[in-house]
Amino acid sequence: MSLAATIEPGVLRRYASDQIVTLAKLVVENAFQPIVEAGTGTVFGYESLMRGQERIGYDTPVDILDEAHQTGQLLQFEQMLASRALAKFATLPNFSTSTLFLNLDVRLIPHGERLVENLLQHLRTANIPPSSVCFEFSERFDNTGVPEFPGLVSKLRKAGFKLAIDDFGVGHGEIKLLCDHPVDYLKIDRHFVAEIDRSPRKRHLLKSIVNIAHVLGTRVIAEGIETEAEFIACREYGVDLVQGWFISRPTTHISELAPSFPHLQDLGKSKRNTQSLDEILIRKQIEMLPAVYENDSIDSVFELFRRNPRQAFFPVLNANSEPRGIIHEHHLKEYIYQPFGRDLLKNKMYERSISHFVEMAPIVGLDSDTEQLMAIFANMEGSNCLILTDNMRYAGVVSAASLIKVINEKQLKTAQDQNPLTGLPGNRAIRDFMRQSGRDGDEVRHFCYCDFDNFKPFNDAYGFHLGDHAISLFAALMRRYFFTERHFLGHVGGDDFFIGVIGWTKEELTEILDRVISD
Fold first, then answer.
1. What gap in Å lies between CA 74 and CA 107, rounded to an integer?
2. Chain-wide mean pLDDT for the chain?
3. Largest CB tally within 10 Å, which of 2, 65, 123, 510?
């Protein structure tokens, strides 16, 4: 019979609060919730969550954490949870290619040195590289107000750990944290994801957050996804990773964790089976630079620069082939040109890993549009390149010169597709609009096909000159009534036109079309 079954939980809490760690070892468990690649449905990692605290009288994980803090047991309690999470993580068949997300209580920051050393010891025991662990900074307290915080962030990064901002948008100082410190992941709070398919306001916010994050080389995780529509909206607006009950609920049983989720793969097929014009043009300009892994030796970096004397930088990847940034030769010059500089780097008292020299760079997916890539690059002062990914994995780099080539070629292709008489987009643009808007949530969309009655007899009677004039007048008329970013006008050819409208009711559209016809 278990301890929790023989003694009331409230009694345990009242009389044994000074033994929280001892009691927690008996009943508290680590549950894992999958974090999944939005484009493929493949599991990227797992967040470790606390379960079972109610058996000793604590309603929520927050309650037991607060009690542990008040009784001076928080560090010991968190170390126990982390060591158990790492041990469970190491039993997963795919742990070597996955990431474990652990929550970091800001109240432990003053004890950061002990916390990190203890974790590194557990990692060595379990044969897990630090790059497979990501710390989520809690939103409950202001991390940036703790004097020791910058030092802890620096120590975690140099040790090779990943960093994430949890519940972005509802906590303390997240923008400041994102601005002042290199962060690998940004987890958008459930508030901004709930019913996002029905809220243009939330979609605009999400798109802006994703763009800002990608400029800074940060990947975006949407948490709390509960419906298919929420998942599709998040994926379409550039979210890299997803988490929530629609994907998978947390579980304490390793056997229940799947390596991928077919229902997400199926939802992604229509997107992945076709390439946009932008992606086709971007792929032509990709340069597949050799990459450095952050666990490689410094000597291997020197050798890479020696074999590529004209190359000033190389991408840095973690063990899962995810980009972490770049390593630039100017960071190493002070060691190259100093007497015994290379020996100093390898000295055990001063030893520097590749992580010490990583410089952040914007990281974006191959499916981004060219204008977005150019805007990201322009806003990232001093960037040497954009790092491109395909399903989160390194796919190459593009330079500013290559992006300009892409923009110019796209403008040429667009001009070739435009109708020379009306200047309206042609069939390629119409197809792209229909494909994109068809995937854009549950918002009402109307596609209208316009065709002149008896146009051939009109041409025969009055000549092609007046026929062309009638077509030009109709194009001008459409532009008068449909002129916002929620409208799309296209010229199929001849006297055939296309009007796409998003967000209008049928009655509103019918009224405007009647006015167009009457004019």
1. 8
2. 83
3. 65
